[in-house]
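Translate structure to sequence.
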């Protein structure tokens, strides 16, 4: 039902850009939504927020400032209804997220996922020199922030990954 409600004929791509936890960790592993703008401007995809927390007003301000729409479903509250949120994740063709609960939800459901991993990663993300990707979920790939704490290379890799993923997916 969620897939039908969200669908406009383009692949549905779930996004999440901010992690939870302690305040100092949030900043280290999160992106600013505006950093995703080049990706989100691609008209070939419909982007759906899987972000937990009250992101609706933030997405409205972002849309007004950039003209870029990210679909937000007010009926889903990831922090209070995990089943509803996982149903939302399951409706996606692919997911792009920083390392947070979204990756575990989509990875556990087998949804093709690109995790954007910061240099301040925790133990779950093995050094890419040793193992590049996600050891825990076969459907999850990873792109890493560079050593200068810049996200650009990882975001470019995510764009290429998304194009490759959606070429392999049927369109609805």
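Result:
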């Amino acid at each position: 039902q969620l897939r039908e409600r969200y669908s406009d004929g383009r692949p549905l791509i779930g996004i999440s850009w901010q992690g939870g936890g302690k305040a100092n960790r949030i900043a280290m592993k999160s992106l600013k939504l505006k950093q995703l703008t080049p990706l989100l401007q691609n008209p070939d995809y419909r982007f759906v927020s899987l972000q937990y927390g009250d992101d609706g007003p933030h997405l409205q301000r972002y849309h007004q400032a950039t003209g870029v729409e990210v679909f937000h479903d007010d009926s889903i509250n990831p922090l209070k209804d995990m089943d509803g949120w996982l149903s939302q994740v399951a409706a996606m063709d692919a997911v792009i997220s920083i390392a947070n609960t979204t990756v575990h939800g989509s990875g556990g459901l087998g949804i093709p996922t690109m995790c954007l991993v910061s240099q301040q990663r925790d133990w779950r993300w093995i050094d890419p020199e040793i193992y590049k990707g996600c050891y825990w979920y076969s459907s999850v790939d990873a792109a890493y922030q560079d050593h200068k704490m810049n996200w650009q290379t990882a975001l470019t890799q995510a764009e290429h990954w998304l194009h490759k993923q959606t070429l392999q997916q049927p369109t609805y």
